[in-house]
């Protein structure tokens, strides 16, 4: 049996009918859970607070950039909507607007300020090292899993060895910060530990990294972190965030991850021939349900309801008409 903490699933079914809670009692049933499940890492509160403080220091100035970009975008949309619908009775002075054919220079042209150039000059350097949002982080992790794959050749060409050369590229370290306590429901991020574990296990299987360097860390944050990060970044919501090692001052952030466990999926790793086979322990979860307090009365009520439904179906059927032919 596994010694892991049992989880209570309290979500209601979409087809569940409303029932009176007075004649029913809460009941828990033990069922077998999915064994291919990566648990969320357990991170101490002081490490979580230190990581959050370091992230706020790294994100300084990003809120002003996002707010200025949003204001510029709103101004651009207002100007565009005004130009798209000109006044119907506006008088146009053709003598003033039509260019002179003999003038080689032509009328003066006003160039609009390129917003991309302005953004490129004022964009913080950390923005290129961030991936924000559940969809963005999911796609990024899936891309990392695919990047660790290597094709297996079925036929060996002449003059080539059957053992592929180890890759020489260095895979950087990255950190995933998840505000799981602020997510409603928390199951929206239930796939993140499996993706992070697949990234680390695929990295070990392919031999790209032998140590802890180049791994993907996952740190769940306490409740209220989402509001703090969204205020620091000038965004409405920041439920999950992926930080690459190319971010400024990432070495300070990486030093806080020394005692944080690295999520792995052991069933994706190729076991050594000399090591003994390790079995995954059985995962038992507690399913929260309800049962009638008086089981005998509930069975009698159910039998009466079934008899009444059967009678309604019988009455709804059309009567049989017997046609006889007289000789």
Gist?
With about 325 residues, the chain is of the alpha/beta class. The chain has 9 helices and 7 strands; from the N terminus they run ββααααβαβαβαβαβα.
Give an overview of the whole structure.
By secondary structure, the protein is of the alpha/beta class. The protein has a domain at 34-75 and 124-148 and 169-270 and 279-286: Ribosomal protein L30/S12 (60s Ribosomal Protein L30, Chain: A), CATH 3.30.1330. Helix content is 35%, strand content 12%. It is built from nine helices and seven strands; from the N terminus they run ββααααβαβαβαβαβα. It has helices spanning 45-58, 62-84, 94-97, 115-122, 134-147, 192-205, 225-233, 250-255, 295-316, and strands at residues 8-9, 24-32, 130-132, 174-178, 216-220, 240-244, 284-292. The chain is extended and about 100 Å long.
Task: Detail the topology: elements first, then pairings.
Blueprint: E1 8-9, E2 24-32, H1 45-58, H2 62-84, H3 94-97, H4 115-122, E3 130-132, H5 134-147, E4 174-178, H6 192-205, E5 216-220, H7 225-233, E6 240-244, H8 250-255, E7 284-292, H9 295-316
Parallel strand pairs: 1-7, 4-5
Antiparallel strand pairs: 2-7, 3-6, 4-6
Helix pairs in contact: 5-6
Keywords, separated by commas or semicolons:
327 residues; alpha/beta; 60s Ribosomal Protein L30, Chain: A; 4-stranded mixed β-sheet; 3-stranded mixed β-sheet; 9 helices; 7 strands; 12% strand; extended; RNase_P_Pop3; RNase P subunit Pop3-domain-containing protein
């Amino acid at each position: 049996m596994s010694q892991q903490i049992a989880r209570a699933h309290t979500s209601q079914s979409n087809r569940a009918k409303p029932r009176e809670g007075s004649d029913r009692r809460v009941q828990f049933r033990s069922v077998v859970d999915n064994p291919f499940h990566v648990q969320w890492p357990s991170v101490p509160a002081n490490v979580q607070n230190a990581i959050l403080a370091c992230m706020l220091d790294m994100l300084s100035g990003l809120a002003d950039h996002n707010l200025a970009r949003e204001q510029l975008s709103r101004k651009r949309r207002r100007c565009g909507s005004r130009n798209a619908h000109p006044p119907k009775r506006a008088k146009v002075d053709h003598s003033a607007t039509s260019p002179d054919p003999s003038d080689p220079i032509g009328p003066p042209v006003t160039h609009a300020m390129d917003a991309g150039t302005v953004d490129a000059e004022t964009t913080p350097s950390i923005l290129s090292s961030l991936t924000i949002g559940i969809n963005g982080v999911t796609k990024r992790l899936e891309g990392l899993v695919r990047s660790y794959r290597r094709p297996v050749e079925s036929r060996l060409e002449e003059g080539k060895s059957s053992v592929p050369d180890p890759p020489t590229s260095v895979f950087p370290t990255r950190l995933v910060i998840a505000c799981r306590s602020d997510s409603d429901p928390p199951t929206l991020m239930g796939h993140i530990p499996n993706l992070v574990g697949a990234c680390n296990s695929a990295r070990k299987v392919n031999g790209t990294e032998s140590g802890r360097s180049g791994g993907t860390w996952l740190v769940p944050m306490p409740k209220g972190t989402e509001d703090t990060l969204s205020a620091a970044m000038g965004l409405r919501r920041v439920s999950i965030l992926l930080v690459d090692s190319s971010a400024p001052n990432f070495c300070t952030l990486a030093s806080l991850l020394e005692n944080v466990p690295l999520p792995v999926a052991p069933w994706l790793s190729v076991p050594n021939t000399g090591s003994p086979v390790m079995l995954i322990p059985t995962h038992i979860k507690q399913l929260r349900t309800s049962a009638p307090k008086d089981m005998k009365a509930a069975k009698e009520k159910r039998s009466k309801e079934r008899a009444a439904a059967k009678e309604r179906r019988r009455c709804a059927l059309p009567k049989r008409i017997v046609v006889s032919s007289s000789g």
